[in-house]
Design a protein that fits this description.
Rossmann fold, seven-stranded mixed sheet, 13 strands, 2 domains, six-stranded parallel sheet
Amino acid sequence: MVVTGQDSQSDESHGIHLADEMLQKKIAILVLSHYYPPEMGGAAARIHGLSRWLVNYGHDVTVITGFPNYPAGIIPNTYRRKVKLREEVEGVTVIRTWVHASSHKKSFGRLTNYLSFAVSSILAGITLRHRYDVVLATSPPLFTGVSGLILSRIKRIPFVLDIRDLWPDVAVDSGAFKSTDLFIRIARRVARFLYSEASHLTPVTEKKCEKVALEGVDREKITLVSNGVDLDRVRTKKTINWQGQFKLEGRFVAVYTGLIGIAQGVAVVVAAADALRRSGNIHFLIVGDGVERDVLMKRAEELALENVTFVPSQPREAVPAILAAADLVLVPLVSADLVDAVPSKLMEAWGCRKPVVLIADGEPADLVKEAGGGVVIEAGDSEKLAQKITDLSKKATVLEQYGENGYGYVCKHFDRKDLARKMEDVLLSVSGTRSK
């Protein structure tokens, strides 16, 4: 009887094991991303984070991307004079292919940059002999989505479109284009076509999910996979004494880190610094690069601002230490119309236990209020920003509580390893390998 009981238990355990194997079936994933580390920005961080976690979960991940050049438009010496390069980065196979490097300061340069990768990524994908179960392409730019769709047709596998920003809506909402422009009208048609042809869509915010559904996409075909933070990579040890290097000891430091582009609206930070030019204990640190950096530096110089320091873009691993040196993190967006954009730098600040001032409206404002991780100011309101920074500079206990609240919220909702599980579920489902 004992032996029989053990055999029965063994059979039951074996059945459970087989069921687990079915649930955890491993697949080969082909990812297309215009941006990838060592490039900075939320796009590169998102795809690298998801890819490395999918590898950790046992899947085979190949990423096709361009040679790094964003946002400065300069390809590092290591990658110059190459047409194609294969690398292994934390278990992820990275295929780098030719791209026309551009600083994105002019529309023509930006367009050629996008188109060059669209073409070279298709050619690179065609030449890969490895068999894949699904294609995942991240947009913007929309051309990357087109490349993903083409490769999925050639390889006869499902296509998932990851939507970080809704193009061309974000270009119109940020003021870069008008809704009546020919380019915008064409882009909108391309976007709708991609939505209809994709096997599944993974927008990064709830409002983006709602907007996509309004385009006639079945809600069951849409899954929210938010931006997040690689909490296992947050290292706040100060390898560089930032406050000492810039002689900021004893001052209240408000920092902005990230892309300095049109949509980010960093001009509001410079305007607030101008309003606080006579407040000797408050200093602004603006860290990053982008098309608006030179413009803002020139503006600060014209205003003779001594309370603003511009720092070039830093390696991603240095960012947590920079945030750790700050008393307050600023997260602006250029327009109140960008209601569905949740900047990844918001989560990064909370991941470092730092309080934020969000200068934006819509979904990110709701997030800050729900998390209790800081305060919210309307987009573009530099006077209110200056006043709020002044008030907060005298409330150390409140700032500490904001930081702790934000950290707890990120741990619960935006840990990248958990978000990668959501993406995994989508990819398993569309590839037909998830157990029902």
